[in-house]
Amino acid sequence: MSIPLTGPVTLAQLQTEFGGTDPVSMNEYYRGGAFVPDSVRNAGIPTSGAISLEQFRGSSKTATVTYAIIGGGGAGGFGVGDGGEGNRGTFGASGQNSSISGSGVQTITAAGGAGGQNCGGERGQTGFPGQSTFYGSGGAGGALNSNGSAAPSTSYGAGGGGGGGDDGSTYDAGGCSGFGGSAGTRLTGTVEVVYGTELSITIGNGGGTNAVGFQGGAGAKGYCVISWDGNTSTFTSSGTVTLT
Questions:
Q1: How would you class 183 by CB atoms within 10 Å of its CB: exposed for 0-12, middle for 13-18, buried for 19 or more?
Q2: What torsion, rounded to 10 degrees, do the Cα atoms 33, 35, 40, 41 define?
Q3: What is the DSSP string of 142-182?
Q4: 28, 73, 165, 196: least buried by Cβ within 10 Å?
């Protein structure tokens, strides 16, 4: 909500938007005081002295924050050079969660992706690719007897590629390949945040490689972008931003 740009402005509207005590009085609503945030949007409201209802047109206690956030991608599962079926039911490392939090804000959490199954494929298969995201492709699966590729760093939240298996020979039974990692969950939406609130952004890492056989590739880390009132902040690592 905000105070309308046209039509009458009343003390009741100020109290509804900013809060206040009864009986309502104009001297409660100086910018930077107990009720009106000292924000760019409220710059026309004085901090002291003469004050009028007209100075509140377009002012607001809260900003509408638009966000997109994704968790880290899961790592690819490993492949092996001989056998490997006993490794099924084990998985590469999962990606970590990403989140947005702040005072008065319900935490928004984007889950990290699951790791790919180790030796999930048949013997003599190449590794399986990691899951792609809105931002780009996952890591490539490994060729026979080769590691899977990490998801590209700008494919935020994408899964790593699975390690390749082994084709076998007369004296070698061959080995199973790994499945690709899953992508992190991507969330988008809007949230109302009081001006002056510091938002904490946590960016989850992608799942890391393992040291067994033909390794699965690492997943890509998460990402977040938020915007409000023409401002945009992007995060490829954890950080904070204050809404002004």
A1: buried
A2: -150
A3: PPTT-PPPPPPTTSTTPPPPPPP-B--BTTB--BBPPPPPP
A4: 196
Phi/psi of residue 62, nearest 5 degrees: -125, 155
Tokens 């002012």 locate to 59
Rounded Cα distance between 89 and 147, Å, is 20
Reply yes or no: is the peptide bond before residue 23 cis, omega within 30 of 0: yes
Q: Classify the C-alpha dihedral 14-15-18-23 as positive or negative.
A: positive
pTM: 0.91
The phi, psi pair for 175, rounded to 5°, reads: -135, 155
In one-letter notation, the amino acid at residue 171 is Y
Between CA 36 and CA 19 the distance in angstroms is 9
Tokens linked to 186? 């991507």
Other residues' Cβ atoms within 10 Å of the Cβ of residue 90: 15
18 vs 78: CA distance, rounded Å: 57
CB within 8 Å of 170: residues ≥ 6 apart? none
Name which of 83, 108, 105 is nearest 97 in CA terms: 108
- Alpha carbon distance 158, 139 (integer Å): 8
Express each pLDDT in 144-159 by its tens digit: 999 999 999 999 999 9
Q: What is the CA radius of gyration of the chain?
A: 26
Tell me the residue type at 243: L
- Sole residue written with tokens 């959490």: 109
The region, left, alpha or beta by phi > 0 then psi within -120 to 50, assigned to residue 104 is left
Ranges of each domain in the chain: 11-59, 61-244
Beta bridge partners of 187: 69
Is the predicted pLDDT of residue 207 greater than 60, yes or no?
Answer: yes
